[in-house]
Amino acid sequence: MSIYRPKTTVEQWRILQAVVDFGGYAHAAEQLNKSQSSLNHAVAKLQQVLGVQLLEVRGRKAYLTDIGEVMLRRSRQLTQTVTELEQLADNLHFGWEPEVRLAVEMVCNRSPLLPIFADFNRESRGSRLIIDDTVLTGTLEQIVEQSADVVITHHLPKGVLGEPFAEFRMELVCHPQHELAKLPQPIKQSDLLNHLQVVIRDTASKPSETSGWLKAEQRWTVSHFDEALRLIKSGLGFCWLPTYMSEESVTRGELTRLTIDGSSHRSGLLYLVLPKGEKTGPCAKLLADKLLESRSSNLSPEVLAGSLS
User: Fold this and answer.
1) Selecting from 3.40.50.150, 3.40.190.10, 3.40.50.280, 3.40.50.12780, what CATH number does the domain 99-166+269-308 have?
2) CA 17 to CA 15: how far, in whole Å?
């Protein structure tokens, strides 16, 4: 098997890009701190080995040919990849992680996290972010086994510390035409026994799907709240849903809230945990710091004051 040997160099493509970006050989030479003749030679050599004309000079300015337009566009992908590769090597040399794994409990509203992710992306030095949706003991498993770098959870395992990060609220909902919606509210838990409950699958390797189960005789298990929402809106059963998912549908009359005698909703705190403790890498710490900087918009003033005291 023969090995392909490139005819061109990355430096030649960078010089071509500079000539185009800075409007000619003279300005490009100033920016690159090279002689104009060396740039002319590099581009001429590039065109010679490729056998195509990339630039044509009119007056004192160089213009891209049609072929040059295509080649220049592809060359930018090449030089960007090389830059990222070299940056990655530098990052790894100084202990910067190539990837960070964030485990997020599904009851957490993701919308407020998007600007944080965008900010993190600008400073992550090319590290990849892997986001895992977790449920119930699946979240605890990520903490105990230290399989994630950063975890947002509603429950802290014994002996594990976490920073209050956000509040969550869940409500019991069904379709407005469902039999449960026609009963006088609040209903009794026994009223639920003969109706279908939709629950979210525990993501642990050895799941324990007991939290949130209301002892209904019929139970369907789905992997995500999005699927549960579709089923409930179609008229199938009832389900505990985070208010950030159910609120709009309730307002539009597509869902109705159910209240059980002694329980109108469920709420609590979400905590940010670094499972690896002092072994947490710098990139994961960067993400955690940015998440914590945003928590003033996720927590009530009372809870925030308590977490900072």
Assistant:
1) 3.40.190.10
2) 5
Say how far apart CA 241 and CA 209 lie, in whole Å.
Answer: 16
**Are residues 233 and 255 in contact, defined by beta-carbon separation less than 8 angstroms?**
yes
CB atoms within 10 A of CB 6: 7
Task: Give exposure, 140-167, as e/b (b: 16+ Cβ within 10 Å).
Answer: bbbbeeeebbbbbbbbeeeebebebbbb
pLDDT tens for 75-94 read 999 988 888 788 767 666 66
Among 64, 54, 169, 59, CA closest to 107? 169
Q: What is the pLDDT of residues 160-215, one digit of tens each?
A: 999 999 999 999 999 999 999 999 999 998 888 889 999 998 888 776 654 555 55
Which pair of structure tokens corresponds to residue 131?
A: 């986001």
> 205-260, pLDDT tens digit by residue?
776 654 555 556 688 999 999 999 999 999 999 999 999 999 999 999 999 999 99
* N-to-C CA span, the chain: 67
